[in-house]
Amino acid sequence: MLNWAVIGIGDITSKRVIPAIQAEPRSRLCGVVSRDPAKAAPYAARVWTSLEEALRDTAVEAVYVATPVFLHAPLAIAALRAGRHVLCEKPMAMNYAEALDMVRVGREAGRVFGVAYYRRMYPKLHRARELLAAGAIGRPVLAEINCHGWFTAEDGSRSWLLDPRQAGGGPLYDVGSHRIDVLNFLFGKPIAVAAQLSNAVHQTAVEDNATVLIEYPAGVRGIVDVRWHSRVARDGFRIVGTDGEMDLNPLNGPALVYPGGAEDLPCHANVHYPCVENFVGAVLDGAPLVSSAESSLPTDWVMDQARLSAGGGLPRG
Predict the structure, then answer these.
(1) For the chain, where are the alpha helices, taking DSSP H only?
(2) Which of 115, 127, 153, 301 has most Cβ atoms within 10 angstroms of its Cβ?
């Protein structure tokens, strides 16, 4: 059994993370860290007002960090140094240097340290890797992935995402990090990045759109385009090869179409559940961690390079 403490009760934790922990048969929600104890009432768990207080409880064995990005590094590092395993929300850090420091501490602590890039658990992405390796579209040369939506936080919900001191960046960090990680999962460690970031519609402190061009060693070129100013939602993904094309559109749907075949491979009803389940297996059984902090480093590197390429410097924090 693995006893969890969850830091932060927000949209993701209440809808996905805590339900995943409660449903995972070898997990127990030991308590939550929140400045507002009333938020924890529905979970019948202990409430701590600080991580330091939670770490004094010897029952806590694993910590889920679900705070704004600027707190990921200090909280994850504190938990790791206290001998706890850590599963952290994405993106891992405010910048690549901070992410490197987190990974170093995790290694020194000898604890399991994962990042919740849950799309790595999608059955259709694992199947896509198999098909690509088998030459289903010949040699892959181009991958196009996008996520378009409308976000202004006018109702006050998740308004911290518009503060670069808390979020690091706009859609590049929020939805772009997931899609960069998908490309890294399929094509390996990137070698070069060019990007454009701007405010085309919303004049906020973070960009409202980002277009990132990523080069991979085998000659694959990835294009990630993410926007917060589209009233038309898009979640597209396709991979072009020398001998055909693979259609994974929408990314979050079950469809996978390739030359000579089409498959329906839905993800889990709670997309965080397989991530939590894999993490528990890594802690209790030594199973391979599909989304480790180390495997997530290239995503932080790409985001740093994107900001530098676009002339924005490193994320502020």
Answers:
(1) 11-12, 18-23, 51-55, 72-81, 96-109, 123-133, 164-167, 171, 177-187, 273-285, 293-309
(2) 115
Tokens standing for residue 74: 């200090």
Which CATH number do you get for residue 178? 3.30.360.10
**Shared-domain flag, residues 180 and 150:** yes
Angstrom distance (rounded) from CA 71 to CA 78: 11
Which residues are CB-neighbours of 317 under 8 A, at least 6 positions away?
69, 70, 94, 95, 98, 164, 165, 168
pLDDT tens digits, residue range 176-232?
A: 999 999 999 999 999 999 999 999 999 999 999 999 999 999 999 999 999 999 999
How many Cβ atoms from other residues are within 10 Å of residue 12's Cβ? 15
Give φ, ψ of 38 to 5 degrees: -65, -30
Asked which of 63, 91, 118 is the last residue of a domain, the reply is 118
Does residue 240 form part of some domain?
yes
Cβ(218)–Cβ(132) under 8 Å?
no
Q: In the chain, how many domains are there?
A: 2
The Cβ of residue 225 has, within 10 Å, a number of other Cβ atoms equal to: 20
Other Cβ atoms within 10 Å of 163 Cβ, number: 16
Q: Which domain holds residue 111?
A: 2-118
Half-sphere exposure of 256 (CA within 13 A, CB side): 19
200 falls within a domain:
yes
Which is nearest to 171 in space by CA: 123, 136, 204, 215? 204
